[in-house]
Write a structure and sequence with these properties.
The protein is α/β, with parallel strands linked by helices. It has helices at 30-34, 46-49, 54-66, 90-109, 127-137, 172-179, 196-202, 224-231, 247-264, 318-321, 325-343, 350-372; strands at residues 11-13, 79-84, 113-117, 146-151, 154-156, 161-163, 170-171, 186-190, 207-211, 274-276, 289-290, 293-294. The chain has two domains: 11-17 and 74-311, Rossmann fold (3-Layer(aba) Sandwich), CATH 3.40.50; 30-71 and 317-372.
Length: 376
């Protein structure tokens, strides 16, 4: 049972049927825009190949510019599923409602489908049952992103972390089981205290997991939820200046503002947020990043965290909205492939490295050529 007495709840869904959630292609000023994500985007690597492959680069550059003239196809509208837990006290309830409203505005700006649990009048079903049912209604496989946002309090008994709901609580184990069938881009943002163990349970390929705390023992009221709700669509959080704010950038901005709060209040910080998107279940704190690139890793043989999170955007740029969901998904996959190649560069012969790199860049060129050849 959570902090509050057992209640039921309703589910609220918005009526916004406009547009698509999308994300921007980087072409100009690549060195500054994506230097933190992959160390460089595929197109930063063009400088590595400049002498060797001038004709290839010219063709790729032309194709890359031409893709921006296309229009995106429908079918990748993101879903934002927001769950507000039991507040316990009226002050917390007011705060949680304000954060939820900020998420709803951001969803509307991003033309996403917005569904909330825990904010409306009660009914015969518990919040836990409503959440399970809502997840079961979502497509398991899709190019569209699914964002699950948890706002509230959490608990940890030394073995199991739970998110406090009105009625039965949500355990990390149960949520992990419910999310197993999903093979679509998935982000879980747990803004609760004691949320750290959710990261270990939920971590998987093609997922971004963010928790407000690094362990279950950080049990005090967490303020991270306030700051990430404000940062997720805030242009000031756009660190690489590509015209859109990624989930990674929102995480970094929110973490910085949490640290500033405790410092200005002269208090010892009781929450330290983590981000995991490489599937190792360990997570990376914000102070391991320089700009938007992680300079430390929890495990040396793993890909750095932050790469996938930088491909999630609540409000995408105009250029990105012109891409079809299929092209965007494949582009993201190739970008991650280039990131993995860079991680392995020191162990490869120079010719082998550049050959693999050229193959990936050729894949991007063919992808854009295929997209621009479609009738508009």
């Amino acid at each position: 049972m959570g902090i509050a007495a057992a209640e039921g709840n309703g589910v609220k869904e918005d009526s916004n049927d406009q547009g698509l959630m999308t994300k921007e292609i980087r072409i100009a000023k690549t060195e500054s825009r994506r230097a933190g994500l992959l160390g460089a985007s595929p197109f930063v690597f063009l400088s590595d190949l400049l002498i060797r492959h001038c004709s290839f680069l010219f063709v790729l550059s032309a194709l890359f510019a031409s893709v921006l003239t296309g229009a995106a196809e429908p079918g990748d509208r993101a879903t934002i599923l927001l769950v507000v837990g039991a507040p316990g006290e009226a002050e917390y309830g007011t705060n949680f409602a304000q954060w939820a409203a900020t998420w709803e505005r951001a969803s509307r700006d991003g033309a996403a489908k917005f569904v909330s649990i825990g904010l409306t009048a009660t009914n015969s079903l518990t919040d836990l049952a409503q959440l399970k049912g809502t997840l079961s209604d979502e497509a398991r496989e899709s190019a569209a992103e699914l964002w699950l946002v948890l706002i509230g309090h959490g608990t940890f008994d030394g073995k199991e972390a739970k998110f406090n709901l009105r009625g039965p609580d949500l355990s990390a184990t149960d949520l992990a089981e419910w999310l197993k069938p999903f093979r679509r881009p998935l982000a879980v943002i747990d803004c609760a205290s004691s949320s750290g163990p959710f990261l270990n349970k939920l971590s998987a390929t093609n997922r971004v997991i963010i928790t407000a705390t690094r362990s279950g023992y950080e049990q005090n009221y967490a303020r991270f939820g306030e700051y990430i709700s404000g940062a997720v669509a805030d242009p000031q959080a756009d660190l690489d200046k590509d015209g859109q704010t990624s989930l990674l950038e929102a995480f970094l901005m929110a973490s910085r503002r949490v640290a500033e709060f405790y410092e200005s209040a002269g208090r010892l910080a009781t929450e330290h947020a983590l981000l995991d998107d490489n599937g190792d279940g360990l997570g990376t704190p914000a102070d391991w990043f320089r700009g938007i690139r992680a300079v430390k890793k929890a495990r040396e043989d793993a890909l750095a965290d932050g790469l996938r999170a930088h491909q999630f955007h609540m409000v995408r740029s105009e250029q990105e909205r012109r891409l079809s969901p299929e092209v965007r998904a494949k582009r993201d996959e190739l970008e991650l492939g280039i990131a993995r190649l860079r991680e392995a560069k020191s162990g490869l012969k120079e010719d082998d490295y550049y050959q693999r790199l050229e193959n990936l860049l050729t894949g991007l060129a063919k992808l854009y050529e295929q997209d621009t050849s479609k009738p508009q």
